[in-house]
Every structure is written in C-alpha cells, then in structure tokens.
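Data availability (excerpt). The following record was deposited with the supplementary files.
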Amino acid sequence: MNRFEPMHFATRAIHVGQEPDPTTGATVPPIYATSTYTQSSPGEHKGYDYSRTRNPTRVMLEDALCSLEGGAACACFSSGCAATTALLATLSPGDKVLAYADVYGGTFRLMKRVFETFGVAPVFTEDTSPQAFAKLMDPRTKLVWLESPTNPLLRVLDIEAVAKVAHAGGAKVCVDNTFATPVLQLPIKLGADYVLHSTTKYVGGHSDVVGGAIVMRDKALQEKIAFLQNSLGGVPGPFDCFLQQRGLKTLAVRMERHCANAMRLAEHFREHRKLSRVLYPFLESHPDVAVAKKQMRGGDGFSGGGGMVTIVLKDGWEATKRFCSSLRVFSLAESLGGVESLCCHPASMTHGSIPKEIREGRGITDGLVRLSVGIEHVDDLIADVEQALGNA
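Predicted structure:
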C-alpha cells in the first residue's frame, strides 16, 4: 500500500487493496464485473486480458490477504477445496503428502479419493508431536499439511517445530489457517511456505459467499500456483471477491467477540453432567493449551483460542440428535465462522465422507458436536445450549 505504511493489522484489513477509485474518488472501489478487457493492439493491454487469469477486484482481495498473512503473494479461488486442489496439484506421481489425521473431511476426500488415484500418496499420523512427523518423513515426502486448530477435534500443532522437521527433509509446509485466521495466528512467521484459507468462513464472515485462498511465503512459489489457478480455472467471481473483502474489514473485531464468546461457553459447560468432553484450545484441560497460548497470537498481538468449541455428549446418537434438533439460536448447518452461531454434527455432515471405522478411530463419534460460536450475546448462546442439553 502506498499511502501510509507500516500499519497495524486492523488498519490494513480495512485499507490494503481498497484505495479510493482514481476516476471518481469512490471510497469503496467498484466491482469489476467484466470477463474480458479491450486491448490497444494484439498483446498490448493494461495488465488484464481475461478475468479467469486476472481481475482487478480479485487482485484487491489477494493484496489484502497477502498483507494480513505476511506473505509475498496470494492467489484466490472459488472455494477452499479449489485452493486445496491447486496446492495438491503442485505434487507429482510418486510424491507423498504427510498430514495429521484430524483434517477436514473434504481435504481427506481430495487426498484419498482424488489425488491418491493420480499417484500422490497421503500419509496420516495420529500423533501431533514433531517427532511423529520426523519418523514418517522420507525422500518422497514433498508436502506436510497441517490444520491448527484441527477440524473438528481442535488439536493445536506446533507449527514452528513441525516446519523445521519438514524443511530438514526437503518438504514444503502448508498450514490451513481457516479456524485461527491471521488475527490469531501467522503461520508464515512460524515457518510455513503456504497458508490456505477457506475464505467462506471467518474471512467472509457472514455465511453469504464461498471462496478460498493460498498465501505464499515468497515469490518463488507464486509462479506454479498462479499457473494452476489459471489452468484449473477454479477462480472466484468479482462479486464474491467484493463480499470477502468487505468481510475482511471487520475480521479483527469479529474475532475478538468470537473468542470471548467461545471461551465463556467452553468454561460454562466444561463439567456439565451430560457432556463427557469439552474441547477448546485455551481451556487448561486441553492437551495442547501450552502450544496454543504460545502460538495463537496474531496480527496486532491479540491472543485467543478461536471461535470453535467441540463437545461430546455422553448418551450417544439419539441424545445427540435431540440436542442438535432442539437448538434455537444455533442453526444446525454445515460450515462455520459466520456472525451467527452454527451447530454441526461432523459424523453425518462435514466428515461423512471419511469411512466410519477411520472416523470413529480418530474420535469423531456420533456423540461429537462442533459449535461455531457466533457474535450474538453470550448469555443467549449459553441458555440455548442449556435448554438443548435438557432436551437431550
């Protein structure tokens, strides 16, 4: 940004990529709803020739996300899965991708049912420790894939330590930062080469747009991702990019409220008689609380455990089904990260594509429920969960 640098995170979230329109002075830049661009002569244009390749509204969003994550370049996609597809497509037959087992069901599906058929072998560790990753590294391992916090068990991996292991073995590191966002966590500073987002979630923040993004540590990584972005064609439209950038402007203040509400809710229910477990990274009972409090500190130094809380009901599927159906403020729905609170049953929804025996072996049982805690008044959220547990 040319007007005033450096800036704090919350200021960059509002201003980077949003310079006033030079033609009219419009404070909010226009949406460039065009598929093509008029050229002065063959091959001579103003940096844009076709909107699958490049669009000014998309460039604005990419510039903003790149700035917030502290990267050198960014590529935006039509969904988180499209971004994941492009990143996995940097691998070749015979390569391996090493990941912690608790990953989003759509990521597992892409790795196992799509890319494995192309000869890219996914390897999963059930252990979060850097030593476990080191044991599974070999010369074929070209990418280490991390979610932190993970989905839906909310494990927190030591990104810096695992990145050192990966780089020592010649592998690149991707961190899915969807749950934490750059407000709470900056993976590139911790050693990641790529940061991936489903911008559908906290970046958009209002459950009204689907998108994805990859932020790259250095320009050397940009060329291949940009080639795949253009060649695979999974790019967002300009209106989708506009909505995501509008969401970015309030990301910092929303995440503060998400974190505060989630912490209150987790503390309130941590010893509830109908729950066997309450998982939240900043609870002292969480197995990774020390790593979480060290690592989950983002753009302006704000620290928090995120907006996701996972609970496990004691009485199995029927009680869980009654609980989910009884919620009134929380909506039973796929996705997360919107201003409104959502309840998800991973075994039947987001992680349903994972075979039952694998899913349950990893702890994603029929009694597990993932709560995306919104920015409503926390007392209403607590009361809603209380009454739904009463019905369970």
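Summary of structural features: The longest helix spans residues 251-269.
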